[in-house]
């Protein structure tokens, strides 16, 4: 999710620049698929019971935004796509790392079986909250900057796209909160009352994911040339 999807995004940027200006019969079907994919994959996240499947579908939803922004071929669109690709790479990797810490201790990825981990791992629960907030594009992370650029670009290209992107953003917030509540809140099962403690390396890994997301907003030109 952090590497392969970015290679696909890079390939789209290179090919789109070669096809500029886009022929309409090529542009519109890809744009429709990208926008429809945002809604479909976000909706699929709401009915997932497997934690890793939920995170994977979340990645596809965010890359739908990136694809739509690249196809428009404007400076704001490409800047938003680059920013969101970097932000998504860090956020998705952090979510998979968190899912792995849960799986190593409980040996299950089913959301209904593992609940209430906040009582046992309060610091890990804090990482869950921060990572889900970045997945929702909450300020001051670069996720928000990338999504604002992309939504503005699509709105400038076609006004009705604000409805699709708005609904997609709302569903993203819904399944991010759903993922946090299902893993951290509620009453824990009796079979998970005694679990191995978390390690310093796990907290360091998550800190190295989340710190760039918060600090890059101070100098976005590091990942996009628009503010240079």
UniProtKB/TrEMBL annotation:
Subcellular location, record wording: Mitochondrion membrane
Membrane topology reported for the UniProt record: Multi-pass membrane protein
Primary location recorded for the protein, binned into one broad class: mitochondrion
Keywords recorded for this protein, A-Z: Electron transport, Membrane, Mitochondrion, NAD, Respiratory chain, Translocase, Transmembrane, Transmembrane helix, Transport, Ubiquinone
Class in the EC hierarchy, top level: translocase
Enzyme Commission code: 7.1.1.2
Residue ranges the record marks as coiled coil: none
One Gene Ontology term of the molecular function aspect: NADH dehydrogenase (ubiquinone) activity
Domain NADH:quinone oxidoreductase/Mrp antiporter transmembrane: 1-172
Family, per entry: Belongs to the complex I subunit 4 family.
Name the record gives this protein: NADH-ubiquinone oxidoreductase chain 4
Species in which this protein is naturally found: Podarcis tiliguerta (Tyrrhenian wall lizard)
